[in-house]
Amino acid sequence: MNRFLIPAVIFLALAGVLYVGVVHSPNKSTMQSALLGRPAPDFNLPILGSASETLSRKQLDGRPWVLNVWGTWCVACRDEHETLIAIAKQNAVPIVGLDWKDDDEAATQWLAQLGNPYSVVAVDRDGRTAIEFGVYGAPETFFIDATGHVQYRHVGPMTIDVWQREFLSRLPRGGIQ
Amino acid sequence: MIRRFRKVAGVAAVVLLLGGAIPVVAVDVDAMPTAELQERYDALTHELRCMQCQNQSIADSPVGLASDLRRDVREQIIAGKSDAEIRDAMVARYGNIILFRPPFQASTAWVWILPFLLLIVGVYVAVRIVRQRTALVASDDSVIEPEDVSR
């Protein structure tokens, strides 16, 4: 009796631990940003389509905004683009684009062809700002509140469902702007 | 003839397979200014996980983000940051998961403790089995019959 009981208990305990590990293993879509609740990193980047203007985080402080990390080399960004256009039409919150390690010309062309959902696009040519935000794959979308703190990050293509549940719900009374 | 061909083809296949498995050692071409800094750079980049890859450090990965992170490590070392400061900066941006060796915290304690617990259990079980068998052998004075051997 004892002979089988002890191995059985050990087996079940191990199976339990492994099950929890598998179920809770960090999944790309559920892994939350390490920046959550912390101030969004500072940046000062050139604006796409402008020869001299730059965009800094401080300019965006004072109201909530959304940062969408994208690039013309990113296939999933193309998938989510239509959703972003639909979201932008709601005019609920400014969407700032971060054009990550991209070619300016290709980016301009992409927006001319597919439509431009962004209030403004900052150009992160060497990828330094993306690293500061802890980005590891485009597209990623951040919600930053009026005090400049990161409140949410979504990894992967934006969907209307995620937008309503995780982004719109964080806006005071459903919209600003 | 065919047999020989098969043999050659088999050897060739093995060589190809092994050749394909040889890891790319040097992804990075930029060297640090001194050997001491290079050593710290090598150690740090091997400790940091490439977030886009499966189980590769940023030192071993050729993907773009890994090379950006290597650049970041290089710049921080040159700027005079300590290893701990660089690690903390990476964790602040990417979370504990970027470290191959997770820190000992309440949430990660079991990662460190469980293997030792299992080792103790394993040793206990092994010792018991050995003792039991030793006892069996000591008390067993029967002669081995042929049918026992053939079993």
Q: What would CATH call the architecture of the largest domain in chain B?
A: Orthogonal Bundle
Estimate the helix proportion of chain B, in percent: 55-70%
How far is the first residue's CA from the last residue's CA of chain A? Answer: 71 Å
CATH topology of the largest domain in chain B: Helicase, Ruva Protein, domain 3
Question: Keywords, please?
Answer:
heterodimer; A: 177 residues; alpha/beta; Glutaredoxin; 5-stranded mixed beta sheet; two-stranded antiparallel ribbon; 6 helices; B: mainly alpha; Helicase, Ruva Protein, domain 3; 2 domains
Could you characterize what this model shows?
The complex is a heterodimer of chains A (177) and B (151). Chain A has one domain: 3-Layer(aba) Sandwich (Glutaredoxin), CATH 3.40.30. In chain A, 35% of the residues are buried. The mean pLDDT of chain A is 90. A five-stranded mixed beta sheet of chain A has the order 5-4-3-6-7. In chain A, 37% of the residues lie in helices and 19% in strands. Chain A is of the alpha/beta class and 177 residues long. Chain A has six helices and seven strands. Chain B is mainly alpha-helical and 151 residues long. Chain B folds into two domains: 71 residues, Cytochrome C biogenesis protein (Helicase, Ruva Protein, domain 3), CATH 1.10.8; 36 residues. The longest helix of chain B has 31 residues. The two termini of chain B are 43 Å apart. Classes of the chains: A alpha/beta (177), B mainly alpha (151). The interface between A and B is medium-sized, with 23 and 18 residues.
